[in-house]
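Entry 12.
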Amino acid sequence: MSPDKFKKLTKLRKNLDNLDNSLLKIIKKRTNLVNQVLALKEFKYQIIDNKRINKILIQIKKKSINNKIDPKITRRIWINMIRAYIDYERRNFKKK
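Predicted 3D structure (tokens):
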């Protein structure tokens, strides 16, 4: 790799690192909201809402297409995020 390309690569990776830091802040905010939602749930079966999940995935596909983002990428990200939060809710559910 030429020195010029290496310099560009280093700069791009720094930009990605900065973006990752921003994403972590957003994930923290999302987790706080999930905790508020979880506090309202009375039964463990309420953790998974398949209708809501399907609605979210449909909306993400539409928004991805409108924003010229590969919908396969965003679908995979959202499915993994949803699964991670379902696992999180199951681990943190406290029966009232």
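Annotation: The longest helix spans residues 3-40. Residues 42-96 form one domain.
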